[in-house]
Design a protein that fits this description.
It is built from 9 helices and 8 strands. It is α/β, with parallel strands linked by helices. Helix 8 links the parallel strand 6 and strand 7. Helix 3 runs parallel beside helix 9 and helix 8 runs parallel beside helix 9. It binds zinc ion (ZN).
Amino acid sequence: MNLIKRLIVQPPLLYRLMFPEAVWRIQVVGRKVAYLTFDDGPVPEATPKILEILDHYNVKATFFMVGDNARRYPELYKAVRDAGHAIGNHTMHHVRGRKTSFRRYIRDILEAHELLKVAMFRPPHGLLSFRQAHTLQKHLNMIMYDVVTRDYARNITPEEVVNNVKRFARSGSIIVFHDSEKSAKNTIAALPAAIEWLLKNGFELRAITPPA
Ligand SMILES: [Zn+2]
C-alpha cells in the first residue's frame, strides 16, 4: 500500500491533534469492541441490503445520514432506527466544511438536526475548518474514525476493502463504510467477510452511543 493510501486509511496523528475533542476511537476496558459506521445514506441502492447483512450477523452499527436522503427516504430512515442502529448527522446536503462559509455550513447542519435530532456529527470528507470544528464541538459529539475502508474508491476490490479492515482494525476502532449508490456494490460484497473476520477475531460490534 502506498503512503497516500495509507494516510487515508489511517488518519495521521497531526490530523487527530487538530481536533482534540473529536472521537477517533472508543476503547472499552476489558473488551474488544469495534464500531461499524456507514456514511452518506440512506439510499435504496445500499441501505436495505446493509440492514439485512447486519441483521443476519445480529450486530449493531451507526449510520451518519445525509439529512436530505433521510427526508427523501423516510421509510429507510425509519428502518435503520427501528432496527436499533445509532444515527448521526452528516449535514443536510453533504457539504464540505472548508469549501463552505461558516454560516452556510452551520445552517446546513442545523437543517439536518431539525430532522434527525441526534447528538453525533461527522463532517463530510472529514474536512472542516478550525472555527467550524471549535463551534460544533461545543454542541455536538464529533465522531471521526481510525479505519477508512475506502469502499467508495473506484479501483478498489471488495477483497481490498476487507483487507483494510483486517490490517487496521484494533480494539476500539471506528470503521468507515458507506451506504451510498456509488459504493453499494463494494460495500455489500465486502461487508459479510469483514464482519465475519471481526467476529472470529473476538471483536464485539456495537453501535456508537454518544458520550454523556
Ligand atoms: Zn460523507
